[in-house]
Amino acid sequence: MNTIDRFHSWRRKLRWDKQYKSGRWDLLKDESESVRYLTISEHIRTYGISNPDILALGCGEAILLDYLLPEDYNLFYGVDFSAISIEKAIKKQHFKAQFETNDVQLFEPRQKFDIIIFNEIFYYIMDSKKKPVLEVMKSYLNPNGIIIVSMFRERPECWDFFQRKDLHSVDFKTVESEVSDKYWKIGVFSKKLQD
Predict the structure, then answer these.
(1) 142-161, pLDDT tens digit by residue?
(2) d(Cα 109, Cα 104) in Å, to the nearest integer?
(3) Is 177 helix (H, G, I), strand (E, B) or coil?
(4) Cβ-Cβ contacts under 8 Å for 154 (sequence gap 6 or more)
(5) Rounded-to-integer distance, Cα 93 and Cα 87, Å
(6) Distance from C-alpha of 155 to C-alpha of 24, rounded to nearest angstrom
(7) What is the DSSP letter of 49?
(8) Buried b / exposed e along 86-106 (16+ C-beta atoms within 10 A)
(9) CB-CB contact of 182 with 169 (8 Å)
(10) How far is the C-alpha of 90 from the C-alpha of 189, rounded, in Å?
(11) What CATH code is carried by the domain that includes residue 118?
C-alpha cells in the first residue's frame, strides 16, 4: 500500500471503531437481519463439508455465530477491520472461535479453510484491491471448499468479480426481510476443477 492508501485505511479504521463504539452497527442484531444470517448458516450446512474450518471476513461482532451450533463447524476464524467489533466478538466467548483485527485488503490467512465468507464486506474493499483479495482468499480455500458472499441489495459491480473461469456458481439467491424492505443477494461459489 502506498502512503495515501495507508492514510485512507487508517482513517477508515478510526471511523469504523467509532461507529462500533457508538452502537451504530447494533442494527445488525435486529430481527430484520435474521433472514440473511439464517440463509448463510443454511448454506454452510447444505454446501459445506461436515465440521468445516470457516473464515469469516468482515465478521463484525460475530453475529453469524448466534445462528450456528457448535457442531456446525470445527473452527470459526473471524477477521474484521474494527478492533471494537472484535473486542465485542471475543467477549461473547463463542466455542471454537478465534478473532483477529486486520484489514481484509492486507490479510493473509495462516491456514486453508473449507468455507470463506465475505459477509457484507466485499463492497467496502477498494476497487483496485477486490481482485487481489479474491485471489488470495481463493488460494486459501481447500479444494472442496466454498465461498459464501452476502451483499446488501444489487451491487452488480461487485458480483462481476465472482464471474470467473475458475469459480463455479453453486447457488445464488435474493433473500428479503419480512420486517422491512431490506434484501440481500447471497451467492455460493466453489472452485472449478481444472480441465
Answers:
(1) 999 999 999 999 888 999 99
(2) 10
(3) coil
(4) 185
(5) 10
(6) 22
(7) P
(8) bebbeeeebebbebebebbbe
(9) no
(10) 29
(11) 3.40.50.150
